Amino acid sequence: MTSGVVSITICALWVDCTSIMPAENDTSDCILVVGVSRPKIAAAFLTIALLSLFLTFHILYDSAVYSLHTTTVIGTMDETVNDRDETQQQIDQSPVMISNTAHFSLTNRYLPQAIIIGVRKCGTRALLEMLFLHPQIQKAAGEVHFFDRDENYEKGLEWYRRKMPYSSKGQLTIEKSPSYFVTPEVPERIRAMNASVKLLLIVREPVTRAISDYTQLRTHVATASTAITVEGSPRPPQSSRSFEELVIRADGSINESYRPIAISLYHNYMHRWLEVFSREQILVVNGDQLIEDPVPQLRKIENFLGIEPKIGRHNFYFNHTKGFYCLRNETSEKCLRESKGRRHPRVSPIVVTKLRKFFSIHNQRFFELINEDLNWPE
């Protein structure tokens, strides 16, 4: 043996079968006998060979799993097409922008780690679409209404999980249903699913929110009044009372039972959430500021969710026709659909002043609960 060089002797010997006792039914003419002078090195060679064989089978298995998963996804999509209601919801709320994640074999559907719980007409859809710009976030396509509708909640968490998007390790799944905030049963139901879930509550100045709510309700009434019944006759005309008539009673007091007003009394609902979740689990997003300048609010949300700051000014451009910011990423651009950003009706300045005075004390109660002053006009 030369210094620094290991010598290995390999011996191969062909043995004629006639010289030994053959095994039963063995018709071979000879036997190959191989010997190695260094058993440890031979074992290493054998280990490497076995590892190579294992890796080959692993690659083939992973490829087969991927093909099976792709087939399953396509089959699920085909089933969804047969569900008219769910399909329409997907069409109405499906994003134009390309998904952050392809459905590889390592992706799965997970229960959401964060939920936008409300408030209605405060920008929940805009907030969700803005967050979807982040590569670490996947979103449910439509409003799932799992926790606020008994008929859905009774279907169980597995039904809810199947409503979630595919996501990979390191991504967050988020859904939004604005009516969660005002539904009494929801906080306890969400905690039963995940006690450490993170909640996003987006609010706007209450009078502005109430007028926006009224505008949407009036639009729905107008649409319904022009629809045709099954018998082919026009529907009876619906009343179209003004905002002032609905919010101010005949005696001059505020109609607190009118739903657009009731929902704007945020502190009435916030109490329930703080009885179930810690204040640190709920981030209050300023919807007015999100409209005027989205990036600072999104920075707060990224920090709250514990994800890298990725969304910046390059992701937005102002659409002067619509009057609000539209979204862009590396592949496409998107503005919210026409129903967003409806023009509000003109409301009497006297009524606006009266409403803001009414909301002043209610807003202070809300600010005390969230330990933050949002500086709404009084």
TrEMBL record:
Gene3D superfamilies: P-loop containing nucleotide triphosphate hydrolases. One of its GO terms (molecular function) is [heparan sulfate]-glucosamine 3-sulfotransferase activity. Its main location: Golgi. Keywords: Disulfide bond, Glycoprotein, Golgi apparatus, Membrane, Signal-anchor, Transferase, Transmembrane, Transmembrane helix. It is found in: Golgi apparatus membrane. It is a single-pass type II membrane protein. The active site is at K121 (for sulfotransferase activity). The chain crosses the membrane at residues 41-61. Its EC number is 2.8.2.23. Residues 112-345 form the Sulfotransferase domain. GO terms for cellular component: Golgi membrane. It catalyses: alpha-D-glucosaminyl-[heparan sulfate](n) + 3'-phosphoadenylyl sulfate = 3-sulfo-alpha-D-glucosaminyl-[heparan sulfate](n) + adenosine 3',5'-bisphosphate + H(+). SUPFAM superfamilies: P-loop containing nucleoside triphosphate hydrolases. 3'-phosphoadenylyl sulfate binds at K121, C122, G123, T124, R125, R204, S212, Y325, K340, G341, R342, R343, H344. Disulfide bonds join C326-C335. It holds the Pfam family Sulfotransfer_1. This is Heparan sulfate glucosamine 3-O-sulfotransferase 5. It comes from Aphidius gifuensis (Parasitoid wasp).
